[in-house]
Design brief:
The termini are far apart. The chain has 344 residues and is α/β, with parallel strands linked by helices. It is built from 14 helices and 11 strands. The protein has 2 domains: 203 residues, no CATH class; 134 residues, no CATH class.
Length: 344
């Protein structure tokens, strides 16, 4: 990777926003933080987040609800989204790992890929662990993988030092044209390694996570244990909504919006494998009729070795969002503690 010295991140942001719609996580004025559009003329200071935002970048490529096609007059009409070039600025390593996971899951999905192809990803290395994060255990962070981003921001430990900007793709290099930056003279590889070691030390060994994953893949978890966890699941879909890799959806067929036009349209909407009817078949058969079986299925998708072999990484990226949102206390740490200590 080519490395440049960057005096002000805002300078880079303004440059990228000149011919693209740029999004950055900012305070929403109501105590929260959400992805918001930023104009090239915006001089607001870029402030790296200590915690991942409540919502990942998933909805930029896989919206909560979208039109797939229309059927009218005996013909099908595709409804690919109208897109404009965009930049997601300041993505954490864990969320970039999730985008890479979704890229594979939706590799043949035209709607997803239409949005993905016009998106530039600007990642940022983490210098410290977020609360509840365990990305270092799963290999999804804190250092942004070069294959997962176009540009990578490396903050410096000293507040007076310049930033480093790493170019990780040809699209990233093309986006920098016209921006005059000096080449970095620092040993940034050693610096990134030291930063990662610091975060890993802050996160600790995460023995409960490691033990839980091992028990799950070795089939050591009793069905009674899953039932006990399932009793605490409210089926609210909070965890699946905030999880950056969850991709369950349901088709929704509706009449065309114009009454004078006969036909129908199909949309897809986010769904959750934790809903009781998610897997129910037309015959009435439901392979996951109990809450315990649904919870087991969910976590097997997140930490199953077969899924890791297929996608190159686990479906969990260690962001800890499920811990923060689950009212039943069965986010990843709660569940892994339970299944790692209660087995057959």
């Amino acid at each position: 990777m080519q490395a440049y010295s960057l005096d002000r991140v805002e300078r880079l942001r303004s440059h990228l926003a000149q011919d693209r719609q740029l999004y950055e996580v900012r305070p929403d004025g109501q105590g929260g933080q959400h992805w918001q559009p930023v104009a090239a003329s915006d001089l607001g200071e870029f402030l790296p987040l200590a915690e991942p935002p409540p919502f990942s970048a998933k909805s930029f490529f896989f919206p909560e609800r979208e039109l797939l096609f229309r059927f009218s007059g005996g013909n099908f009409y595709s409804a690919l989204p109208a897109v404009t070039a965009q930049v997601l600025f300041g993505l954490h390593a864990c969320d970039l790992q999730a985008v890479a996971y979704q890229d594979q899951f939706f590799a043949a999905d035209r709607h997803y890929q239409t949005r993905r192809r016009v998106t530039l990803l600007v990642g940022i290395d983490c210098l410290h662990s977020c609360s509840g994060g365990f990305c270092s255990t799963l290999g999804s962070g804190p250092q942004v993988h070069s294959d997962n981003a176009d540009l990578i921001l490396l903050p410096r430990a000293s507040a007076t030092a310049d930033w480093l900007l790493l170019v990780a793709s040809s699209a990233g290099a093309a986006a920098l044209r016209g921006l005059d930056l000096p080449l970095a003279q620092d040993d940034w590889q050693t610096e990134r390694h030291a930063n990662s070691a610091c975060v890993a030390q802050e996160q600790g060994a995460q023995r409960e996570i490691v033990a839980g994953i091992a028990s799950l893949n070795q089939g050591l978890i009793a069905s009674q244990t899953w039932d006990e966890v399932g009793l605490r699941c409210l089926g609210c879909s909070g965890c699946t909504s905030v999880c950056p890799t969850c991709s369950c959806f349901a088709p929704l067929d509706l009449p065309l919006e114009l009454p004078e036009e006969a036909g129908s349209q199909r949309e897809r909407v986010w769904d959750s494998c934790l809903y009781q009817g998610f897997q129910q078949e037309a015959s009435g058969q439901n392979p996951t009729v109990s809450a315990g079986s649904r919870v087991q299925r969910f976590w097997s998708h997140k930490f199953g070795d077969s899924f890791k072999a297929q996608f190159g990484s686990y479906g969990c990226v260690g962001c800890g969002r499920c811990d923060r949102v689950c009212p039943g206390g069965i986010g990843v740490h709660g569940v892994m503690h339970k299944v790692g200590t209660c087995s057959n």
